[in-house]
Amino acid sequence: MTPIEQQIEQTIVQNIPDAKVLVLNPDGEHFEAVVISASFNGVSLLKQHQAVMKPLTDAFKAQVHALALKTFSEEKWAQRAADFPTIEQKIKEKYNG
User: Fold this and answer.
1) Which DSSP letter does residue 38 get?
2) Which of 54, 1, 73 is closest to 31 using CA atoms?
3) pLDDT (tens digit per residue) in 23-82
C-alpha cells in the first residue's frame, strides 16, 4: 500500500471508526475507495458519499484528483458482496485474516 493510499484509509477510518476500508490504485493515478460501515444503515447513498468525501476533500485538496467511491451499509454489503467478487475477497483477506 502506498503512503497516499494509507493516508486515504486513515482519514476515512478516523471519521468513520467502524468502517471496513479498501483503497485501490490500479493505475497509479486514480484511486478507488470501498467503504463498508454499519453507520451507513438507513443512510442515503448521497449522505454516505458526503460522509466519506468531506474529510478527504479537506485533507487532500491538492493530492487526490480522481477518487471513485463505493459505499455500502453492512446490510447492503451482505446483499451485494457477490456482485463484487474481487473486492469481496480482498475485504475478507484484510478483515478476516
Assistant:
1) G
2) 1
3) 998 887 788 999 999 999 999 999 999 999 999 887 777 666 678 999 999 999 999 999
Question: The C-alpha cell of 56 is what?
Answer: 478527504
56 CB contacts (<8 Å, ≥6 apart)?
8, 11, 12, 64, 67
Q: How far apart are CA 1 and CA 15, in angstroms?
A: 20
The whole-model pTM stands at 0.90
With beta carbons less than 8 A apart as the criterion, state whether 60 and 79 touch: no
Helix (H) or strand (E) holding 76: helix 74-80
CA–CA separation, 74 and 5 (whole Å) = 23
The contacts of residue 87 (CB under 8 Å, 6+ apart) are 22, 34, 70, 81
pLDDT digits over 10-39, tens only?
999 999 999 999 999 888 778 899 999 999
